[in-house]
Amino acid sequence: MADRLTELQDAINLQAENLGNAVGVIQQLAQPSLFRELNHNGRREKEWASNPEFQALLQNQSQEDNAHKFAVTIATTAKQIELLINSLPAEEASLELQDEVTRHLLSEYRKESAKLVHLITKSFQTRLSKVRQLLSKIAEVQLLTRTLENEVYNDFYNATTGDVDSNDY
Asked: What domain of life does the native source organism fall in (predicted)?
């Protein structure tokens, strides 16, 4: 949305520039007119006559060409602005509609969070049972190892001391 607003602002600035340029060209190219009531001496008319650039501009391009070019440019930019405005989202929804949507989203959030808690709990329970099984196996191996160590120790002790175990007979 920010991109569309920026694009709209750029188009509005371009339109303002187009309108300003059009007014400037109209002021430059317009034939001076005298207002006899204001006792104007026609200063501008003298400027036109003495400046060859203005005379060349007037001869090469008619006022109608300029008017047409600016009209097309202004109309195109206006259409672009209209399209950008129409592409913006609609006005803000009413408070009741926003409340309803918020309640619906909150309800869905609660359902999904309950599912997530269930899945996490189930996963942890499964892992906990695996850890307990592994701990049980480790305990069994440790007991077996201790028993074997004791037997090896007893056999070694008996062999070195010469004691005869009564279980051997």
From this structure: Eukaryota
Nearest to 14 by CA among 80, 63, 69: 80
If one counts every other C-beta atom within 10 angstroms of the C-beta of residue 8, the result is: 17
Residues 37 and 81 in one domain: yes
Of 4-13, 17-26, 43-52, 159-168, minimum mean pLDDT range = 43-52
Enter the pTM of the model. 0.40
Find how far residue 159's CA is from the centre of its chain.
Answer: 81
Last residue of a domain, one of 66, 87, 108: 87
State the residue range of the domain holding 140.
116-169
Q: Does residue 96 fall inside a structural domain? A: no
Place of tokens 């918020």: 102
Q: How far, in Å, CA of 156 to CA of 169, rounded? A: 18
Say how far apart CA 91 and CA 49 lie, in whole Å: 56
φ and ψ at residue 124, rounded to 5 degrees = -65, -40
- Give the integer Cα–Cα distance in Å for 62 and 49: 17
Residue 106 lies in a domain: no
1 with 89: CB under 8 angstroms? yes
DSSP-derived secondary structure letter, 61: S
